[in-house]
Amino acid sequence: MSSFIRSAATVGGWTMGSRILGFVRDILIASFLGAGPVADAFFVAFKFPNFFRRLFAEGAFNAAFVPQFAGTLASDGLATARRFAEDALSVLLSILLPFTVLAQIFMPQLMVVIAPGFRDSPETFALAVELTRLTFPYLMFMALVALLGGMLNSRDRFAAPAAAPIVLNIILIAAMLLLRDRLPTPGHALAWGVAFAGIAQFLLLIVATDRAGMSPRLRRPRLTPRVAKTLRLMVPGAIGAGVVQINLVIDTILASTLPTGAISYLYFADRVNQLPLGVVGVAIGIALLPLLSRQLRTGDLAGASDSQNRAIEFALLLTVPAAAALLVIADPIVQVLFRHGAFAPSAATATAGALTAFAVGLPAYVLIKSLTPGFFAREDTTTPVKIAAVAVAVNIVAAIVLMQFFAHIGIALATALSAWLNTSLLATTLHRRGHLHLDARLRARTPRILAAAAVMAVLLWFFAGRLGGVFAEPGALRAVVLALLIAAGIGVYLAAVILLRATSLAELRRALRRA
Questions:
Q1: Structural domain count of the chain
Q2: Pair 191, 47 in one domain
Q3: Cα 262–chain centre separation
């Protein structure tokens, strides 16, 4: 358990740094672009390659590659595992290069699919096509980063892969500050920044694998049995690991049919929601998968069960209070982060509504990351795809219905509800197969975590209601007040979880030392 917490803390710590820089980036985007057509066009251009990156490169590829690489490393040694990685790299490149070229050629047709509402605004449609052509090569480099990162993670080297996203945020911030007045729109500066960031992240991981003594060489593509198995596992894994991303793309498609700004509201709300999801959920998924793979390969079933339970407990301990906080102080958070420059008060209110809806599903998003390794470590990527198909179908139907009443907020709420459905089905299936047994410690601590989060939420609601006037006025004071409010909430929650014995002071101290 200590190694899992340490690994998750490493990933989470670097991810936290990336998310903080990401907020700086998004504050600048909100200030320079607002929530208008240029912002909508860039967010579609960024989401399209980002969707494929998270779905295929990080999600499906990691789900298929990491268990095989970690298992081969444990049973056959580094030389055989590295040769497998080299074969996978060559085949991956032979697929991605033509895919990227075809996407460039048929981008207008693809744009009709991912943003059909843009057809009613020819200028926005043309700008989205142009910006997406600039950002799309990012996918290819991120797929290579995923492979190199999977190799490093399998050897318990988590720092460099987790730090790579920081490069993206630094380059995008620099592009906005230095290039926004030199190119046709700030959206062009951001799109070029995305393309260069992909190259920079790839070079960073090349250096890291070389220092670890495992840098792969580029070979002639060969469809070896292990590579073929990886590709077979990737197909269902693409949906099973990426249901949240699929739902977010569906959100974009539907939001493009709403008035201008809906895509931007959902983007900025999701960015805030992604902080705990990225820091906790991604960290758990990345650290848990190779650990479970090794434990199952060596027959340590008791250890695998304990790792699964502690991952769920760790996820609940951190995400339940985060969700509670976002539910009650979404408006102050959005006002402080984004209400600057071109970002109007009405846009802040609309974004806060979407954030509240997304927050309903926050624990579910992270629990998905905690449960899917239970399938992937056993090389089962078929079951999650079936579950994901049900969740996606429910999301589409719910979003279409709810957006009629709540516009973009209905879309966000449908995503949250479908995430809970996905979580429930994953947990139920694992339990029926005998792969998930909630131990006494988890069963005892879960209601205590919920109670502690409720205490914190009441406190935040009480003080936020009396400080509402402060957040409505621009200036540094509102940022200071928000920081104090969040600090008070964290303090109350920590005291509550200790008093209710949802965790112990000794455990918190050990976790902080490992972090």
A1: 2
A2: yes
A3: 21
